[in-house]
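#dry-run=false #mode=assembly
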Amino acid sequence: MKKLNVLFAVFVVAMLLVTACQPKATPTPEVPVAPTTPPVEAPVGEAPLKLIMVQHALCAWDAFWCTVEDGIQTAAKDMGVEVTVLGPDKFDLEKTAALIDQAIAAQPDGIGLTVTDPVLFKEPIMKALAGGIPVLAYNAGKGPVADGIPYMTYLGMDEYQGGYQSGQRMIAAGGTRGVCINHQVGHAGLDLRCKGLIDAFKEAGKTAEVLGVKGEDAAQSQTTISDFYTANPEVDSFLTLGPSSANPFYAFVEASQPQNFKHITFDLTPEVEVAIKDGTTIAAVDQQPFLQGYGAVMYLVLNKRYGITPALPVTATGPGFITEELLGATVDPAKPLKLIMVQHALCAWDAFWCTVEDGIQTAAKNMGVEVTVLGPDKFDLEKTAALIDQAIAAQPDGIGLTVTDPVLFKEPIMKALAGGIPVLAYNAGKGPVADGIPYMTYLGMDEYQGGYQSGQRMIAAGGTRGVCINHQVGHAGLDLRCKGLIDAFKEAGKTAEVLGVKGEDAAQSQTTISDFYTANPEVDSFLTLGPSSANPFYAFVEASQPQNFKHITFDLTPEVEVAIKDGTTIAAVDQQPFLQGYGAVMYLVLRQRYGITPATAVTATGPGFITVDMLGK
Amino acid sequence: MIEVNHERGRNSLVWMENITKKFGTICALRDINFGVQKGEVRALLGDNGAGKSTLIKILMGIHQPTVGQIYFEGRPVKIRSPKEAREIGIEAVYQDLALVNLMSISRNFFLGREVVKKVGPLKFLDLKNMESICRSSLHDIGIEIRSATERVGSLSGGERQSIAIGRGVYFGAKVLILDEPTSALSVAETRKVLSYIENARERQLATIFITHNVHHVYMVADSYTIIRQGHNVGTYSKGELSEEDIADLITGDRES
Amino acid sequence: MKASVSWLSKIRHFYSNTTIAAPVTVLIVILVLFSLFVPKFFSFRSFSGIINAATLNGALAIGIAFLMVSGEFDLSVGSNLAISAYIYGNFSVAGQPFLGLIFALVVPALLGAVNGVILVWTGIPSFIVTLGTKYFYRGMLWVITTGSMLQTVDVLPMDKIFTGRLDLLNNLISEANFRNSLFWLLGLAFIFQIILGKTKFGNHVFSVGSNPGAALGQGVNVARVKILSFAISGLMAGVAGIFLFSQFHTVRVASGDGMDLYAIAAAVVGGTLITGGSGNIWGALVGALIISTLRTGVVLLNIPFIPADNFEAIVGVTIILAAILNMYISKRK
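#status=ok
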């Protein structure tokens, strides 16, 4: 017994020493790392931000736009900013372009616009960007890459996902064979919807096909559908892509009385609303125009205030699915809400989480809801699972959580969902599909895009040959980052490859990088995937003094910060933990107040890129 | 047969009196009396499992007797470890456990009693000195070696026994315990080892020769103690019994 | 015919009596072959890189080789490396590098000794004991640091003493990148080889590793020798941790994970017997150099189907070949 005491004492002393002076150190979290978002500017006591939105149509003469403008004004109120919406008094692209110029002249803090005509709008948008005004697109556009204009992002429908998720819902309802009734074959957006449907059926081991109808002739379309059904009576799942195909489909249903079919359509019309209520139609696919307006304002404000950038060129606001349940729900912008967030770690003992919690509290304050953050006092998954149970018992209006262990957390999450509490995941998780738990969405890093966009930035900086320094080959997330880099180089007609290093032995890794560079001196673009590979990379740079190289790394550490400032490193890839916290609250609130649902299983909060400009702020 | 006489036993060099050893409920030794005198070669005979090695391990300090007392040079002693046994002059030569095969002859010779020289406050092995002492002292008792730096592992079984015996003699052992020293040796080598034992007897050392085969010890022993199943069968002087008689006593084919 | 046989046996005799000879020969052969056939290999850039790559592994291997001579293993040195780096790092950041140095050596040495104490008390094989403490030590480190990485951008003068660039040499030779850690490694190998080969304690370490029964019979305190050997393996893990933090200023909870087996590999390749009782500290250092030389050769060869991360295959083959060589040499009669 006495001997054991000695042993124990030795250990306690040892461990105390490990922690000695810990608070004075610069601790940064191991997984995932990214503690510092650029300095936060509090909106308090300053003149409110002024934003201008330019649209090709207005609520005043097109009812669709009332929802968008409602989203814009709600966000403006939530975030305490001034937003002016400009638009022509009838459809007129020239005039819309002129309104952009007018908006720039007003020197706003941000511009949102509908990129109806990228050729015509390019010049004014470039002028705004040159003047340092952040610009993003919503509702109309194809994203900065496809439009060839480097605005922040485009908020709109993900057409492919619209078809794909419709297919999944049909299969879940028992559908075995599908058809996509396309009223305008050859239209890129509509074709993407059909492709999504077909892929969803294919993945489930079933088949689906496209039926082209003439949208201009409703009578003929009805007959075509009827003939097709007679020839293929085993078809039981119908996707219509808008009123032009939904309308003849309903006529067909009335006339031919097919049994046991599943129907989903795009765009909510009064006719569709009735069909949803009487059970003919499962759901209407919605691009969620409210979220387009709300998101456009939100991203402009978050960019200005917290340096947050949208992770992807296209930020999906749809598909949202309007089901019978949602139709019954009433929109209540003032609904008081109580949310609970359950995390496996807390700001109290892990600095990384302070940024996440800051995002949560900022969103809570902006949107006027009450949010409680729960977490264990040290890393303890069992306890975290118990906290989820505790959260459910409190009957909140929504739960956000980190799905650190899907097996352990599945049961409590299912309990919450069964109790009608909306649940979403942030920071840790793989998304509802991969985790096998039907929560709303997972807000986190898009690893592939992290590597892909890094590659694009390196190439833009003049990189010609890349290497992805991977300290843990075989780790799914890290491998995806490398794949993204390689694809970006491949698309630009260049090559990139993977160099595996032993992350646990920094000395060995440094020499491996040096040897690789000696063997491949033409390599000029280096991507490191975290501190374990960045740290030996810097040692290599110091020792071997390579010239004219481009370096991007994941996760901002003190060392990376210095390197960005002195020009060694172009940027640090960030998962934007602030946005994870903010977005989690926002989606839960929008769900409860406006029936908005996240468009995709994984909602990318990163990559964000921390460059020298952002560190300077 | 030599009758047990505690008075006389206590005055000999080593005397183990009324030794009983229990391992849990198993009684390995019961009321054993055993000893050896200066200049005597005493054979300790018994079949496998008779209790020979338990008795010797008690003398070596590896085991403690459950009941009984050990006397050394007339004084009652308690031997708690092999180190203490060696300190009072009891040296054991086990066939496999005597020497470290991967070490040189001289390092083995001085293992645990290394010669050091001081360099400032530090002490280093005096390897040169160790080698020459080793070589010359082995030579003194008639053992010739090729090189003191040779690894013991490359020596024959007889050479290893002789080095272990020579080491005991050099370090002033009063009692040499030899555990089956000749059982794996050729005839010529056995003869050599027996001659080292006689050399030791001449130097007035007491020798305990443990074996299960009387043939190995009949020529050299002055007396024989036979144990069977943990009991004393008896102690006999040289010439009292024939080789065959002793062999029968060991196996229990004949009662004393 | 007869002359050639005795010539061969003379060589074998030399190699069997000189444990360091075989690994040094292997290293020289590899260096010559690579210099001839691997493009860009023959340069001071490569040579200094090979030595730098072996810094942490070499430090661990010195301690592991010492311990293996006593007949035991230590799989917890990787964890001790991380513990030491956190201790040294935290004290450095707090402006107390000297105190940090002391604790970063003492604590791993004590944790190493704990391995030995458990082994001696329970009689459980060291493979199992240190497999357990390997996870326990690192697990506790995880809990205490909450998994946080420790990084500083301030370089202390003390750090340069350990792992600073050896500019005196580097300025003379272009492309060279030698570091002070080279001298520390040579010095430590020298000291521990002296302890092993030229002291009473070293003599006992050999005896305990080869034949603990005989050692006990000759009055060697086997338990004490084993515990001290474990403490030395822990101490060298502490040295490796100081090397890590003083050069890279970064330590993570996963730092050093898996390096225990690499250190054992270095010791075996360097001629230390896996069964104990025979070995050489210089050999362990040479073993670490052999492994890192092979790695540099492989990376420089740029073979697409042997990427650097598949280097393990080559280490595996090297270990087996080294073991066969050791066996062949020590079988000499």
